[in-house]
Amino acid sequence: MRFTAFTDYALRVMIYLALDPGDRATIKDIADDYGISKNHLMKVVNVLAKGGYVSANRGPGGGLELARPADEITVGEIVRLTEDTLQLVECFGADNQCSITPACTLKGIFNESLQAMFGVLDAYSVQDLVKRRTELKKLL
Fold first, then answer.
1. Fewer CB near the last or first residue (10 Å), C or N of the chain?
2. What's the rounded Cα separation, in Å, for the pair 99 and 85?
3. The domain containing residue 74 runs over which residues?
4. Planar angle of CA 68, 71, 5, nearest 5 degrees
């Protein structure tokens, strides 16, 4: 399984904002520091804001900040929010056309592995992602 660039960027935004809690950043700041598209980042921030993870304020003194404390937001929450589908195989979807589905155990195995992965992702908060704060700040 591979996560989309959208999820990658969403996690990077969360890391960026968690590095300096209480400080506000702009989309331009984040895009410039990571070397990624400002336009794409705007879409990512919009989803994070609608999901209640980022507070976005316009105008003088505006900017982005975490809407909740970093230790209250799990990595799993962000992945679930930003991934369009977690359909690992065809039989996970409503349009399943696989002829062996009634007798196949693969769906159950993949579902078990997906649940295990989210068990791990849910065990880590955004705060855990910035434990190496000093090193991260030097890289940005």
1. N
2. 22
3. 5-139
4. 80
Domain holding 106: CATH number? 1.10.10.10
- How would you class 48 by CB atoms within 10 Å of its CB: exposed for 0-12, middle for 13-18, buried for 19 or more? buried
The pLDDT, as a whole number, for residue 61 is 79
Instruction: Tell me the residue type at 84.
Output: D
The partner residues of 40 in beta bridges, in order of sequence, read none
User: What average pLDDT does the structure give for the chain?
Assistant: 91
Give first-to-last CA distance, the chain, whole Å.
Answer: 28
Structure tokens at 128: 């855990």
Number of domains the chain is built from: 1
* Predicted TM-score of the model (pTM): 0.88
DSSP-derived secondary structure letter, 125: B
Based on its alpha-carbon atoms, the radius of gyration of the chain, rounded to whole angstroms, reads: 18
What is the rounded CA–CA span in Å between residue 82 and residue 9? 10
